[in-house]
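Let's see one such:

===
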Amino acid sequence: MRSLLALSAALIAPLALVACGDASTSAADEAPKAPPPPAPTEAEKVAMLAALPAPYDAGDLENGRRAFARCRSCHTITPGGPNMAGPNLYGVFGRQAGALDKYGYSHALRSAGFTWDADKLDHWLENPRTFLPGNKMTFAGLRDATDRRDVIAFLKMETGYKPETTEAAAAATAPAS
């Protein structure tokens, strides 16, 4: 019986180290991560807010931050942040709906066929269930249009949104030759 216990202990000990992430193997195997971009200063945020298209240029970032607090239990907004009950929202503007790697979207979102922009997000936030039936988001929505405007302005400031350059915008609207 003792030899059976000794054999079990000899087999289980290495497995426990692997499961816990032995520092000698897991740390050496990981590639160093690039540092996140620096957070914008208050002056940069004011300039960025003013550069947003209407009505988001009139957004109240503090109200947006407070209104977004209802979303934080399910979403992160930092570069490389974890997915939770909902996906990480960093980089959401310009992202194909249902396309963030390593998140288990509903079939409705995976097959939605649109790219997130302020207008789509506004309609989604108003009532996710009616905007895209069959999605798994349980949030009832933000009924107040001002809160939605402010949340979208806040997210544009906090999730790496980059407005189109004037050259890209001009090229997009120029007639084809």
